[in-house]
Design goal:
The chain has 382 residues and is α/β, with parallel strands linked by helices. It is 45% helix and 13% strand. It is built from 16 helices and 11 strands. Strands 7-6-5-8 form a 4-stranded parallel sheet. Strand 9, helix 12 and strand 10 form a beta-alpha-beta unit. Helix 6 runs parallel beside helix 8 and helix 11 crosses helix 12. It is globular, with a radius of gyration of 22 Å.
């Protein structure tokens, strides 16, 4: 690897004139500091449907984009994908697990490009957020905070909160908690009862108040990074996907983009995908969507009820400044562009043997490892 990099650098130095200039400009954003603010231009298919003052103007560049879209092939004749082949259904996966390394990988970093930009613009020195004990969002937020030279403060929901309060080592050193510790996060805990009784925003606010009373300037980020600002990360992800669909359609004339399936836990990713795909096929359609109907969006809830998610997504859309549609309410509009399904099974982050067998067999059939809390549970229940 070092030899290849050396050769690349030597070759780069030999480039002269306009060619070198173009190449350096093309790769410039990979060479800048991670806390550099970049101008943000909303997708053309979306910007006329939101209040101008509510749209973000800048973003960071933390994710490795675009993430690839892979056609899922292979599998045994009696494997879990056999029925799809019989029905001539093609399965593609957009690999948003490839947005970053072990620290940032997953869907959360698209939101954090917006949310951390806001923290930098406000000259904050710390970030406070909340999630489950093994929260992917908290892990990614903690790593992104350190990249911005901000101190991360994480509130982790766990049934072991009382025991951990008596012995901090009880939190352990496995999974995402290990990454949280490695980047020096200050970790607070709450019980599921406290989380349900007080609410995540109140808990985050209490830690922010504590930090402010000690002279810090914290930035609050909601559970999952799911608010109006963070959701723009997935409006832009839809624009990225539409560009990729143009290539797929040019290579496969029979391609029919009919359904999109994803897990939803806090609603932000679901809001961005559903709104983005609806608007991309609307009045200001993306070229890849001209003359085509929007695909059906299926959000698989890994916690809470479908009604909860419809209400949550509608609230996010209102906070984004979504202009009045032909429907009587924002929630009616949301219900028309996404179908939310029950998918929590035995409960959030609790897997059944059947779910785990499905995830294991999917990995054998495809070489793709789904996680048991979100993507694996969502695809199984769908």
């Amino acid at each position: 690897l070092s030899c290849s990099i050396t050769n690349w650098i030597q070759g780069f130095k030999k480039l002269e004139g306009r060619t070198a200039s173009r190449l350096s400009r093309r790769h410039m954003h990979h060479m800048l500091r991670p806390d550099t603010l970049h101008r943000y231009e909303p997708p053309s298919f979306a910007k006329n449907f939101f209040d101008e003052g509510a749209m973000p103007t800048h973003r960071l560049r933390l994710a490795n984009l675009p993430t690839p879209v892979h056609r899922v092939i292979g599998g045994a004749q009696d494997g879990i994908l056999a029925r799809l082949k019989e029905l001539n259904i093609k399965l593609y996966i957009k690999r948003d697990d490839a947005t970053g390394g072990a620290e940032l990988g997953g869907n959360k970093v698209r939101k954090l490009e917006m949310l951390m930009c806001d923290a930098i613009a406000k000259r904050c020195d710390s970030v406070v957020t909340i999630g489950g004990e093994q929260s992917n969002h908290c892990r990614a937020t903690a790593a992104a905070s350190r990249m911005m030279n901000l101190s991360p403060h994480l509130i982790l929901r766990t049934r072991r909160a009382d025991a951990i309060e008596r012995n901090n080592e009880g939190m352990g050193y496995t999974g995402n908690v290990l990454f949280d510790r490695m980047v020096g996060s200050t970790i607070y805990t709450c019980t599921p009862g406290e989380y349900g009784r007080l609410g995540s925003n109140t808990l985050v606010g209490s830690v922010c108040d504590h930090l402010e009373s000690n002279g810090f300037n914290p930035n609050a980020i909601p559970v999952g990074g799911s608010n109006a600002l963070g959701t723009w990360g997935y409006i832009s992800a839809v624009e990225e996907l539409m560009h990729q669909l143009e290539t797929i359609q040019s290579d496969d004339s029979d391609f029919n983009f009919g359904h999109v399936v994803f897990a939803t836990g806090s609603g932000g990713t679901a809001a961005g995908i559903a709104l983005g795909l609806s608007l991309a096929h609307g009045a200001d359609a993306h070229p890849a969507a001209e003359g085509k109907e929007a695909p059906t969006c299926h959000g698989i809830g890994v916690c809470d009820s479908p009604d909860y998610f419809y209400t949550t997504i509608a609230s996010i859309a209102d906070a984004m400044g979504l202009k009045k549609m032909i429907h009587s309410s924002t929630e009616d509009f949301i219900r028309s562009i996404i179908k939310v399904h029950h998918g929590k099974g035995r409960g959030y982050a609790v897997s059944s043997d059947e779910e785990l067998r499905f995830i294991s067999q999917f990995a054998v059939d495809t070489g793709i490892c789904l996680d048991p809390v979100y993507s694996g549970k969502a695809l199984y229940h769908f």
